[in-house]
């Protein structure tokens, strides 16, 4: 199993905020190498499972495991841009933009599908099916806050802002696999 740094270093990512295309490249490369995520992903029937695979001053990468009925609630990503790749199963997404909310839009992401977004994007990802799903998410800069929203008529109203975990040393997926895949907390 290769270490995640060995996949990220050849990408020659910039030192500042990564572009949406760069974030798509990150999740695409990680998704393509199952040895980086399959040994550590978990699918918990009680709550959505998530673990941080990598963090640096410019990039944060998360792995999420979903069983049917689990979702994130409608939320933003603070000032971060992001991208995700569904690597197995199917995820439904309700989405829109904080500044131009006109109602919930919906789409479905099957395995192999990737999506990127900028600041101001809000969504609720969820596994509406009965088959487990797995996804990889990348954010730049790393998440610092997430605000959750509820819909009211033709508007969305913030009701909770959470401060996410700060940077740490990242997760060596080989080490995480050896201890049962228990990784850092928070993220979507």
Find the CATH superfamily: Jelly Rolls
What is the level 1 CATH name? Mainly Beta
Radius of gyration: 16 Å
Largest sheet composition: 5 strands, antiparallel
Summed up, the helix count is: 3
Morphology: globular
- Beta-strand fraction estimate: 35-45%
**CATH architecture descriptor:** Sandwich
Instruction: Kindly report the spatial arrangement of strands forming the biggest sheet.
Output: 1-2-8-3-6
Description:
With 188 residues, the protein is mostly beta strands. It has a single domain (4-178), classed as Jelly Rolls. It has helices spanning 4-8, 20-32, 173-178, and strands at residues 49-55, 60-66, 81-88, 90-97, 105-110, 114-117, 121-126, 133-140, 145-152, 155-163. A five-stranded antiparallel beta sheet has the order 1-2-8-3-6, covered by helices on one side. Strands 5-4-7 form a three-stranded antiparallel beta sheet, with no helix packed on it.
């Amino acid at each position: 199993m290769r270490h995640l740094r060995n996949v990220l270093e050849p990408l020659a990512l910039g030192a500042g905020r990564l572009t949406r295309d760069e974030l798509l490249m990150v999740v695409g490369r990680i998704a393509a190498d199952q040895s980086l995520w399959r040994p550590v992903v978990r699918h918990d029937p009680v709550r959505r499972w998530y673990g941080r695979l990598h963090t640096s001053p410019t990039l944060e990468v998360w792995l999420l495991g979903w069983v049917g009925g689990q979702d994130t609630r409608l939320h933003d990503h603070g000032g971060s841009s992001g991208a995700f790749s569904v690597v197995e199963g199917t995820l439904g997404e309700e989405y829109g933009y904080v500044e131009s909310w006109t109602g919930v839009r919906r789409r479905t992401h099957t395995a192999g599908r990737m999506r990127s977004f900028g600041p101001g994007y809000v969504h609720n990802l969820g596994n509406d099916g009965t088959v487990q799903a797995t996804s990889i998410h990348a954010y730049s800069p790393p998440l610092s806050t997430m605000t959750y929203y509820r819909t009211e008529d033709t508007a969305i109203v913030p009701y909770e802002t959470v401060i996410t975990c700060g940077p740490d040393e990242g997760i060596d997926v080989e080490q995480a696999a050896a201890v049962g895949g228990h990784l850092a907390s928070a993220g979507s």
